[in-house]
Amino acid sequence: MFSNPDNDALVRTAWQSLLRGELDTSTRRPIIDGSWRRCLDLKVDPGLAAGRDPIGADRLAALRRVNAELLDMAAPVLVDAHAMLAGTGTMLALADTRGTILKLEGDNGTIDRADSIRLVPGVNWREDECGTNAIGTALAIGEPVQIHSSEHYCEGIQRWTCAATVIRHPLDGEVLGVVDVSGLSGSYSRHSLALVVTTANRIAARIAEREMELRFRLLEHALPWFASTREDGVVVFDRRGHPVKTNGRERDHAAASDWWRLGGRRVGALCFAGAPGDAALPAWIDPARVRPVMENGERIGSIVTFAPAAGTRRAGTGGADWREAAALCRGEAAQPPASARRAIAAASAMPPGFEHVVAHDPAMREAVARASQLAAAHVPVLLLGETGAGKEEFARGIHRASAVAAGPFVAVNCGGLSRDLLTSELFGYAEGAFTGARRGGMVGKFEAANGGTLFLDELGELPLDLQPHLLRVLECGEIHRLGETQTRKVSFRLVAATHRDLRAEVAAGRFRMDLFYRVAVTSVRIPPLRARRADLHALAGLFADRFAREHGTGPRTLAPALLDLLAAHDWPGNVRELRNMIEGLVLMSDGPVIDADALPPDWRAEALPLSGAAGGPASAGPAPGAPGPDGASLDLAERRQIEAVLLTTRGNLARAARELGIAKSTLYVKLGRHGLGARVAAAREGEDGQ
């Protein structure tokens, strides 16, 4: 997935061998090897100096009209890119499904330099036009990709570095376009790939929000068609031809029933702006029974009816109540229908039930795949992972993907309650069972989870004397509320979680062996955030978007310098710590771009020494100012100049960057390389002490 600039000389040699007809794959990544082979088959000229000539202004305007909705959904992202990428030596490009660039935003100097290779609006950057490049290769393989320097197939583009990924429609996974970050090779950063993935996800989220809004309005238009006395079959399709709601009577029509039984696949012909032609529609849809639903001149969906089969004259309400369907479209219902979950999962390449889990990291993907596999079996699952790693999100995913998804999901933290309170919370109690008992008694969590999933978090904290009672419930499926003798039957799916080593707890006598073997039939280990850094930028971006919506602050974008510092942190509190950090940054920020200055001073000073260049922590190299190879004296002079400016600006990094004449992101790199994080804190403390 990621490029490695350290291998550029080897890749360059492999490229030169390729020109001689030698296909040595040992020095290049499989993604690059596959792309170069495609370029050979397509007879792309490796000596190409730039992209083709751009299309004319009229054709570009027409292309932008065709992609108007994509541009509209991407507009806030492009505005953020203009501010966020200024001074970074990189720019963001938005391209259509054929690889033609529609829009550029970012660093003005880089946009000017991109003209030399025609990386400009109106130029097609598919592989068959420009060889291996992030836009074209991402379209070819449908995955995020980073292409650096000599990995480009065409020589004229090899001074550049780029990362791109496709934008997919959140409901059906159709590719809508490509987002790309490019710059000269000196601007290379692994974070560019995370940035394009986060950006594509933001655009897809805006599209999903609009689709849900249109579906809700579509259902309001369709309401009269769902009268309980109606005998026709009725199916409502959205503007992309996906079935949204049915009254259940379509099953009386044999062909429509077969279509619905096979999963109710999309009917693409219903996407047409006008009435669809007879030949385009499946044979089982009568064109005369297709009614477009129009709003403000826009087709937002279709209502298709089916005549009842002979002899079927039954009355009934058919499908789910329209209010429930409308709530599903607004996202208010507890869970979307299974068909929608499957579509969203396909778009995110995640198993059903786990659509909202961010898992670009291989270890995280493996954990999700295992949890999804176990969800299908009605056996207890033990989730293992550090505090804050996302165990409850996994438990909810297992519930959503299980056979009891329609039932309740009940969560209990075994470490958050005293022994007596936990007992009454789990088992419930009868009226008058003890002083202060609620009138009428209380249903316990075991009963509340009946027919669904019980999630016991922090199972390792369960008091030893309560453990045999839990074991009996699991083995017999029976409980007694406190203060009563009546036996009550319960049946639920158990998912438990712990950050402890339960085998060690068993050996120490703090956890029963028989209960351990009962709950640990299967297990899933969830990696900590520090072990899945490929997910960090995407998570941070998703949290920023979520909290900006929740708190009504307007869109918020995380600056690259801030993301660098976040990536350098160890995150002992895992995803929970990151989520809380991002919420605080969103609430405290004044503008649309959140910079590194927004971090708490003590946190920022601690992280700075870790945020150096690709070489890693500053301590990994020679001590600043120590004798060394050529340039050591220049390094010492640079260090002293930065120290002096930090002192005069009292640790204000924005002012320091201006006085030094460099971008603030560059200043952060230099602070990390010279190990000056403590000097920043000291300069600010000096200001506080005055």
UniProtKB/TrEMBL annotation:
Which species does this protein come from?
A: Derxia gummosa DSM 723
Q: What domain of life?
A: Bacteria
SMART domains per the UniProt record, alphabetical: AAA
CDD domains, A to Z: AAA (cd00009)
Provide the transmembrane region boundaries: none
The family database entries (InterPro entries) matched by this protein are listed as: AAA+_ATPase, AAA_lid_NorR, GAF, GAF-like_dom_sf, Homeodomain-like_sf, HTH_Fis, P-loop_NTPase, Sigma_54_int
GO MF term list: ATP binding; sequence-specific DNA binding
Task: State one Pfam family annotation.
Answer: Sigma54_activat
Region listing for Disordered, in residue ranges: 610-633
Protein name (database record): Sigma-54-dependent Fis family transcriptional regulator
Q: Which GO terms describe its biological process?
A: regulation of DNA-templated transcription
Keywords assigned by UniProt? Answer: ATP-binding, DNA-binding, Nucleotide-binding, Transcription, Transcription regulation
Which PROSITE patterns is this protein grouped with? SIGMA54_INTERACT_1, SIGMA54_INTERACT_2, SIGMA54_INTERACT_3, SIGMA54_INTERACT_4
Ranges for domain Sigma-54 factor interaction come to 357-587
